[in-house]
Design a protein that fits this description.
The chain is α/β, with parallel strands linked by helices and about 240 residues long. It is built from 12 helices and 5 strands. Helices cover about 55% and strands about 10% of the residues. The radius of gyration is 32 Å and the shape is rod-shaped. The termini are far apart. It comes from Candidatus Kaiserbacteria bacterium CG10_big_fil_rev_8_21_14_0_10_49_17.
Length: about 240
């Protein structure tokens, strides 16, 4: 019988192998346990392990611990049919496997478990930091935040919408005295009012017009949308 445990997450794979060995030993307390690594290949006869029997218990528990890249591993791959038919339990513990070796083992394994490493969740960019940098007219920070957001999968169109919203909020705040007049909530209204000291009305109107024109120009093939937005940022 063959159990295959493999995958990029070798810590979890080893934990599973340890738990499996423990469970088997509990079920068969008289079974002999062998852990074989590539360092043991000259001292181990695979044929003897496959065919021999314990004195008090028919089964052995054999952990083949990362041996497939050794000479013993080649023997294991060639003897999979015999190993699977053996009275004993063989646990093959490996890291990543090439497709050819995996396919060979899967044909004879009783059970196959893969442990993949979970990809780290991409940190979501801070929308408020982006609009705050625009309001503060901090070109370097705004550009860095734009790149940060793009690296984390934010679409250029989404970022364009946030920047346009901030410019529009500043224009609304410029021509109003209350949040009700501006049609904004208190916090963004306050931030927009504070940002007005960094821009003139003419600059805001010009920046808004450029943002409105950007997607149209991009669709006509004048430039790539993401690059066009980046150039807009570098000119604030």
């Amino acid at each position: 019988m063959i159990y295959l445990i493999y995958g990029a997450d070798e810590y979890k794979g080893r934990e599973k192998a340890r738990a499996l060995v423990h469970a088997l030993q509990k079920r068969k307390p008289n079974a002999l346990f062998f852990r074989i690594t590539d360092e043991d290949e000259k001292n181990i006869s695979l044929d003897e392990l496959i065919q021999s029997q314990g004195l008090f218990e028919r089964k052995y528990i054999v952990l083949l611990d990362h041996i497939l890249k050794s000479e013993l591993g080649e023997i294991v791959l060639n003897e999979l049919k015999s190993i699977a038919a053996s009275e004993h339990v063989f646990i093959i513990l490996e890291g990543k496997l090439i497709k050819k070796d995996l396919s060979k083992i899967e044909k004879h394994a009783e059970k196959v478990q893969e442990y993949r490493k979970k990809e780290a969740a991409k940190e979501e960019f801070n929308r408020f930091a982006l609009t705050d940098a625009l309001g503060a007219r901090n070109r370097e920070r705004l550009w860095c935040l734009y790149q940060h957001a793009r690296d984390r999968g934010a679409a250029a169109e989404e970022l364009h919408g946030l920047l346009f919203w901030q410019v529009k909020a500043m224009l609304l705040a410029l021509h109003s005295n209350t949040t009700e007049e501006a049609g904004l909530k208190p916090f963004p209204y306050k931030k927009a009012k504070e940002a007005l000291r960094n821009y003139s009305e003419a600059e805001l109107k010009n920046r808004a017009a450029q943002l409105v024109a950007l997607p149209h120009e991009s669709r006509r093939g004048a430039f790539d949308f993401a690059i066009g937005l980046e150039q807009w940022i570098l000119k604030i």
